[in-house]
Write a structure and sequence with these properties.
Blueprint (H helix, E strand, L loop, with lengths): L35 H10 L18 H8 L5 E3 L6 E3 L22 E3 H17 L4 E6 L4 H11 L22 E7 L24 H6 L5 H16 L3 E2 L6 E3 L3 H7 L5
Parallel strand pairs: 2-4
Antiparallel strand pairs: 1-3, 4-5, 5-7, 6-7
The structure holds zinc ion.
Length: 264
């Protein structure tokens, strides 16, 4: 487990895209902004070498559960429960997910690569500036590729296939650079986003929110909640996946695929 504060000493990139038409929500939250080029140079300076993938040894049965538990002691990964203003509800560690089964055993926390975890810490601080007492509510972070293959086998050839990454290419979750996240208010209630997590329907698609708002299928409050989430995540450089309001990549996919290994 890595408990070193990260967000305080790394600078994080910020996307210039702004999907909040009002553009006002976080004007008061100062954040250092750097380009992707300088960010990649920075990661070289701080010494990002090849990471230890989760490989089986001769004594340990290779399961997602064993893999995740092993990586809790890897300095390249951070237990998100150590970050202030972050709560965790690991959906794939219970039957409360689209698969209807527990895929993570008794593993209960969520991990991200330390770069992505540092960005999440910045997002959580930005949320405090906007909504004091609110927390980021994490549903999933690092996801071993063996679990991705289980997802794929379930959805392949169905309408849900669009929402699940092909494991041969790897989801950005498989690198520890994607997070599924919502918001929790100051009294611990999950905020209404208009659909549940892993609701694989058009209503979950941020790119169609304006259309659903006009049609009365999403309320102004639900859209506003999604915008708050996007604003605080984008402040730390996270990139919103256009078809799932809960999914954010910490870095562009091509940079992740080029520089970091998949966790099997
Ligand atoms: Zn996701």
């Amino acid at each position: 487990m890595n408990t070193t504060p990260i967000g305080s000493h790394l600078a994080f990139p910020r996307l210039e895209r702004d999907d909040d038409p009002a553009g006002q929500l976080l004007a008061q939250a100062p954040m250092r902004q750097v380009s992707w080029v300088s960010f990649v140079a920075l990661t070289a300076v701080v010494g990002l070498g090849p990471l230890s993938a989760c490989e089986p040894d001769t004594e340990t049965r290779f399961t997602p559960h064993a893999c995740l538990n092993r990586l809790t002691t890897d300095p390249d990964f951070v237990d998100l429960s150590t970050i202030p203003w972050v709560a965790i509800d690991l959906k794939y560690a219970s039957p409360d997910n689209f698969m209807g089964e527990n895929l993570y055993g008794d593993f209960r926390t969520a991990l991200l690569h330390r770069i992505a975890a540092g960005q999440l810490e910045v997002s959580a601080m930005a949320l405090q500036a906007l909504k004091p007492g609110w927390k980021l509510l994490v549903f999933d972070g690092l996801r071993p590729r063996t679990v991705q293959r289980q997802f794929w086998n379930r959805v392949k050839g169905t309408p849900q296939q669009e929402y699940v990454a092909d494991p041969d290419n790897g989801s950005i979750h498989n690198f520890g650079f994607a997070v599924d996240v919502s918001l929790m208010d100051e009294v611990g209630r999950e905020v209404d986003m208009g659909t549940s997590f892993d609701d694989f329907s058009p209503l979950s698609e941020p790119r169609r929110e304006d259309e659903f708002l006009k049609a009365g299928k999403l309320t102004p409050a639900q859209v506003e909640n999604r915008r708050i989430l996007r604003r605080v995540m984008s402040k730390a450089g996270f990139i919103q996946y256009p078809i799932e309001w809960w999914h954010f990549d910490a870095l562009p996919a091509d940079i992740v695929r080029k520089n970091y290994p998949i966790v099997e």
